[in-house]
């Protein structure tokens, strides 16, 4: 569903960013633009079925030992 | 003093309504199955234990929030822990809120694609929901709060229909023998209800400074939490009474199956979509509040003057992340029952306690 992301991004760049530039809100503009580029990159990677790391795998790796100890104590 | 990004104000009643809808969203469909998975027919006792422990958590949040009535969670973690450590904790809180939004969005997608519209691609479902949420968040907190007042009567009405029409189907022998599973299993099952709505209620610490008379929030917070918990307890009891525990624990969305059982005479049946409506309404508010808290937190973290420029880029990120997070429904069930309680414990219990203790030692309140 890359096209939805692209349309949404195009709308932001066309309608929101000129306003931010005019009001000299450059910090907002930079942060927003960098998140946008990152999000579009991920969208493209996803639409080409590139492997994207899953943050839940990292969380699982961190909490698995604690979870095992507690849950075995409760069973 | 940091700039006020959100200029709207909500009152305590709206805060209570939002708390209630938040604690119902996604819980009402998912949690009954997790509650009965370990403690079997005693799942309803686990629900009661979980709600009672949840009340204690709300007490903790109230104590922490009332120490800094003019600041949000992200702002006072910087005040309490200092610039660097505070920023790291605030960033972690942002990641928690954002990840929670993507998981909640995925719940919507999974529900619709497995039960209502199996042929529709899940991304389309997500995007439609994301657009509604982006609109709500860009309109601000006041609009979300007022729309919750409009939708509350509908949610209550549909819940009453569900409960009243299921009463004839109740079979009391389904909960016997009571206490068969034992204390450990009951506590184990109650982890699910503690983690799915109650530890996530930290989101409301972001809204504290925008409520009128923030020093008196406690009762509204508690009222919303209790009402939401009561509904979950009743729905879990009905699941056990009507479906039986084995059926409940095998289904991913047992309260939807529950509504299929409604049959009054020969003419009133197949009204299970009512549950879906309850769920869409409540989960919309849950998702909107999580996403709102994430955006507000990010803007406060970087000291921006508005969070609105971030909404659409983060919306795209949310839609992508919600597809990545769960490769399949088994992953979701294992994650929700084994990892999520501990992950949300870090943010819903450990960090608030840490902030409270450090703040008591430093005495920097107000």
Descriptive account of the structure:
The complex is a heterodimer of chains A (75) and B (366). Chain A has 75 residues and is mostly helical. Chain A has one domain (2-74). Helix content of chain A is 84%, strand content 0%. Chain A contains three helices and no strands. Chain A is elongated, with a radius of gyration of 20 Å. The N and C termini of chain A lie far apart (44 Å). In chain B, α3 packs across α8 (182-198). In chain B, 56% of the residues are buried. Chain B has one domain: Amino acid/polyamine transporter I (Up-down Bundle), CATH 1.20.1740. With 366 residues, chain B is mostly helical. Chain B has 14 helices and two strands; from the N terminus they run αααααααααααββααα. Classes of the chains: A mainly alpha (75), B mainly alpha (366). The interface between A and B is large, with 38 and 39 residues. Chain A: Keywords: Membrane, Transmembrane, Transmembrane helix. Chain A: The chain crosses the membrane at residues 29-48.
Q: What's the pLDDT, averaged over the residues of chain B?
A: 90
Cα gyration radius of chain A (Å):
20 Å
Strand order of the largest sheet of chain B: 1-2
Describe the oligomeric state of these chains in a short phrase. heterodimer
CATH fold topology of chain B? Amino acid/polyamine transporter I
Using the alpha-carbon principal axes, give the shape of chain B. globular
Mean pLDDT of chain A: 90
The two chains with the largest interface, and their residue counts, are: A-B, 38 and 39 residues
Structural class of chain B: mainly alpha
Count the strands of chain B? Answer: 2
Order of helices and strands of chain A: HHH
- What's the number of domains of chain B? 1
Count of runs of 4 or more consecutive helical residues of chain A: 3
